[in-house]
Amino acid sequence: MLALEKRPNPSRFWLYATPVVAVALTMVAGGVMFAILGKNPFEVVRTIFWVPLFGEFAWYLRGQLLVKAGPLILIAVGLSLGFRAGIWNIGAEGQYIMGAIFGAAVGLAVFPTENRLIFPVMILAGLFGGWIWAMIPAILKTRFNTNEILVSLMLVYVAQTILAMASTNFLRNPEGSGFPGSRNFSSYPAASNPELIAGTGIHWGVVTAVFVVVAAHVLLQRHLLGFQIKLAGQAPRAARFHGVSPNRLVVLCMGVSGALAGVAGLFEVTGPAGQISIDFNVGYGFTAIIVAFLGRLNPVGILFAGLLMALTYIGGEMAATNLGLPSAAIQAFQGMLLFFLLAVDVMTNYRIRFAAMGAR
Amino acid sequence: MDFGAINPVVLVASLMVAAVPIMLAAIGELVVEKAGVLNLGVEGMMIMGAICGFIVAVRTGSPLAGFAGGALGGAVLSAIFAFLTQFLLANQVATGLALTLFGLGLSALMGQGYNGIKPPVTGPVPFGPLADIPVLGRILFSHDWMVYGSVLVVAAVWWVLTRTRTGLIIRAVGESHDAAHALGYKVNRIRLGCILFGGAMAGLGGAYISLVRVPQWVDGITAGAGWIALAIVVFASWKPWRVLVGAYLFGGITVLQLNLQAAGSTIPVEYLSMSPYLVTILVLVLMSSGRGRAGLNAPAALGQNFHAAR
Amino acid sequence: MSGEGSDVLLSVEGISKTYPGVKANEDVSFAIGAGRVHALLGENGAGKSTLVKMIYGLVRPDAGRMRMRGQDFAPQAPREARAAGVAMVFQHFSLFEALNVAENVALGMDDPPPMRELAARIRAVSEGYGLPLDPGRLVGDLSAGERQRVEIIRCLLQDPKLLIMDEPTSVLTPQEVQILFGTLRQLAGEGTSILYISHKLEEIRSLCDGATILRRGRVVASCTPREKTARELAEMMVGATLNAPARKAKAPGPLRLAVRGLDAASPSAFGTALKDVSFEVRQGEILGIGGVAGNGQDELMLALSGELRGRPDSVMLNGAPVGDLGPDARRRAGLVTGPEERLGHAACPDMSLTENALLTGATRKGLTRRGFVDWRAAESFAQEIIRTFDVRTPGTRTAARALSGGNLQKFVIGREILQAPDVIVVNQPTWGVDAAAAAFIRQALLDRAAAGAAVVVISQDIDELLEVADRFAALNEGRLTAPVPTEGLTLDRIGMMLGGAHGMHSADVHHTHEIVQSEAGHAGT
Fold first, then answer.
1. Rounded to an integer, what distance in angstroms lies between the CA atom of residue C26 and that of residue C28?
2. Read out DSSP for chain B?
3. What is the pLDDT of residue A354?
4. Residue C94: which of B168, B179, B296 has the nearest Cβ?
5. Do residues B62 and B120 touch, judged by C-beta distance below 8 A?
């Protein structure tokens, strides 16, 4: 019989090995799933993990990798701060949408003025949109002790409705002959977020993501605030004893994660997506939760996790077009990855012992 | 507001139908939380129930088998949650989220090729002349058996939790797993049982959506019903009968806003369709702000994992 | 052995139990006669708890065997032990606060009668043994002594042959201890054997017929406690001679801490609100605050540390109001605290000792610069604590949870003392700590007072307070008595300050008087 035994000290080896083992196990289990779907599992796994990086169209797909990883990393780093402190903002999808709408609205309001300040102001508006949307659950939690998980999640559905209104109503392209969707930012240089170096996929969002990773790393490793965030998550009473105000931390962590999700939405809508449309959001806000955990809530880990998750997106699309793999399969595959990660995670703090039946 | 085009009798009758999925999912989650476990994967379990129930019903042609399949689908998914949280001590919040993300993906995968198919019809219970009573007959005696079944489940959960030893043990485990362990109760096994029950109920609720409420298969068919069920548990202060009230309240809001949309109300459609979510938030605020003794109904060990150290 | 041979109820023969890294029990043997009160004596960590868990079926031994009335006895689960007539009152109660008394009792029984009948039996049995209880009350609303009654009644309803009591008196006032002893003698008189686990020597001498003394998991002696002095028992238990802490008489200095009319609501549902608490402490002085668990100790600690805030002038530090300041601002002003709960409150279990040194040392030790942590300084502070307070640990990178209770407590107390505070407040500073570490910690507190700090020690251990404190005050239901000098203070007086016997109705008090008297007569024979 197997028994778990708590380690006196967390295992450093497993801290780093966990994501690798989880990815390996997911490939195995995913392979079984692909086989059940009637595909050659080796072919599918190769298409997802190898082809985008080293295949025929790698020159293009590697750039796409950064395009997809950018928003995931931005959102996940923000979420990870809250998750570390035991503050569960799972409504990043809604904050992402609201950031995009706020930022886009600012840009579209001044169309077609050309001014260098327009894009920076739009970034601020994007930050604000995500921040204000995250402040709703934050304030309700601090004032009324309302569960932030449920409120932030409910606000995703509200945001999606507002997005529908924006694309069919108040932000609709007046020259779009009645079709839903806003003006396309690619034809409005002052408000667009173009590829900075051709062929690399790098846009302002990617640059910001890298900057945020570094800032978060310094915050967590070197700053007292980072220490307080970790403390609040691991031992809430010890955090209060240290002098952390739980409410302040809720407002701070929700605010930062909301603002980062919002600005990710702004970069997406002005760059890769190009316009506000009913379905410009593709679930990055939810996938970022997986990315945050896969990166072990560590900024540098999240950088790699974001790239890996972007790989599964692109590889999934490749597998869909080349091998006819249903696109839902990749979503299930990503969910599986989180399961395996959570399962293997037990090894960090526990060791498994084989005990005789009955004894303990 | 224009209520003129809406028939109140039809409204009440249809809210009873609309309430069934969230009532079932919420009563299942209530038992899970009473045992001290927070399973945020209700949405994922519901949608798995919806697709499993749909597939089984279409394949067998029997709605009954469909509901059984839905319950089984939800329970199987919850078994993953139980294994991760009870035996591998994974974080319950993260695992619950994983369950939802995985359930949404897997259901979409399983549902390929089932779009646009009509499931076998679940007919009303033949009450004979009772159904012809004016007003009451339409409201009370015109429904399929799941409407009555879900109320019976609520009654049964109330009875078990408050009147039986099993219920006492479940509440004790949710209150203090250490004390329960010291008395010799198998904390993890009791929680496992509750999680599976919660999964089955969520699955049953999901199956009702795809087999009766909609009735067809669409990706993401549950549209947040699982999250609303979680909110109803908070609304109900962990009391079974209040789950019934909460479910009818939310069922009522859903039906009313749909009716208003259909009746061509002057309120824009978007405001109407976001109203159930806004009302959920409002209700959460109202229920959470009253602190003190009312909060005692919340199980003290909610969300904490148990590991028998020595 | 000591007259228990003829009618042995339970015999333990050569029991061993090893946990990874620890030999909890090694070749332990002893026997309990029917109707006898047998003591299991030993310090924290001597292996008493593991031993009784094996008798109760919660843990299974690696080697050795047990016999009950000559039959092999190897319970696989508490249910089997209960079926064999073993009942246990736990040290940390196995009670459910949000459930009522009758439900709690039912959970401890294998085949409880219907609730109404059970309630009637609880009333009957509790009155019969002088331990009145209302079956319908929520356990969370009961005092610590009343909660223990719930546990005892739960056991008695099963008509046990052997009743195990794990440190039962640590939550009782002296008066309540007398009532409990009356009940236990009554039970023994009716033929029930009692296994009594304690480290309180005088209690064992007055109550028990025989004693087995454990040290580091082994039996080091068996004796009849009445024939030994408390000092002899202590030396057998600890294995060395312990010196009482040295204290130098000193005239108190200027006023450091003044608490005036402090009211505070409890943050927890079943906590106790503080009502109009006032006291003063001067430099060089130690104020001991006693009280039975759950009478406002935690709330007082929170109100002093700054985790609960109130009126500015309710807490005055060196003449300045700090009542509305948070923990960090109070530390900066010279007030440091050491909460009761080591893991999770005073220290973060999963963090390293360096990080835990930063936890409270950041401000006074200057471990941060413009918000950025100076990890090297934090580590050297942790090293200083480890060195000065003799903390046994592989290094500063070790997680707090890996330290033994005594070592972690030395770390926590050392961390506060080394910040050279003007005022230090500690709650239960030696709770669950081995005797050597406890003596060390008490001495450190005395030394800090001598070096010029005002010290407040909140403790449920009266002996500890009498040992270190200059003045004594008691918390009872959130109110603090006026402090009195500890010199010449009698146990009876302390008991009355602690609130006498809690939860006794007037009629029952009369009843218990009879028991106490009849027990006094019993003891005389």
1. 6
2. ---TT--HHHHHHHHHHHHHHHHHHHHHHHHHHHTT---TTHHHHHHHHHHHHHHHHHHHS-HHHHHHHHHHHHHHHHHHHHIIIIIS---HHHHHHHHHHHHHHHHHHHTTT-BTPPPPP-PBP--GGGGGSTTHHHHHSSSBHHHHHHHHHHHHHHHHHHHSHHHHHHHHHHH-HHHHHHTT--HHHHHHHHHHHHHHHHHHHHHHIIIIIS-SB-TTTTTTHHHHHHHHHHHTTT-HHHHHHHHHHHHHHHHHHHHHHHTT-SS-HHHHHHHHHHHHHHHHHHHHH--GGGGGGS-TTTT-------
3. 67
4. B179
5. yes
Q: What is the pLDDT of residue B116?
A: 87
Query: Does residue C407 form part of some domain?
Result: yes
Counting the structural domains of chain C, the total is 2
Least trusted range by pLDDT, from A37-41, B5-9, C73-77, C490-494 = B5-9
Which residues, given as ranges, of chain A have pLDDT below 70? 1-2, 354-360
Residues of chain B with pLDDT under 70: 1-5, 290-296, 308-310
Whole-angstrom Cα distance, residue A275 to residue A270? 6
Rounded to two decimals, the ipTM of the complex is 0.88
Predicted confidence at residue C457, as pLDDT, reads 97
Residue C227 lies in a domain: yes
Contact A145 B288 (CB under 8 A): yes
Range of the domain at B180: 8-112+145-288
Residue B310's pLDDT is 44
| Same structural domain, C196 and C265 | no
Please indicate whether, in this complex, the C-beta atoms of C368 and A238 are within 8 angstroms of each other: no
The pLDDT confidence band at residue C508, using thresholds 50, 70 and 90, is very low
Q: Are residues C148 and C268 in the same domain?
A: no
> Is the same domain home to C229 and C276?
no
User: Which of A227, A235, A358 has the CB atom closest to C358's CB atom?
Assistant: A227
Q: Domain limits at C353?
A: 255-489
CA-to-CA distance for C11 and C32, rounded, in angstroms?
Answer: 6
The tally of domains found in chain B comes to 1
Residues of A in contact with B95 (CB under 8 A): 339, 342
Here the tokens at position A4 are 């778990």
Yes or no, beta carbons of A238 and C305 under 8 Å apart: no
> What part of C 339-358 touches A (C-beta under 8 Å)?
339, 341, 344-351, 355, 358
Asked if the structure places residue B278 within a domain, the reply is: yes
pTM of the model: 0.88
Q: How many residues does chain A have?
A: 360
Min distance C137 CA to chain B CA atoms (Å):
14
pLDDT digits (tens, 9 = 90+) for B48-72: 999 999 999 999 999 999 999 999 9
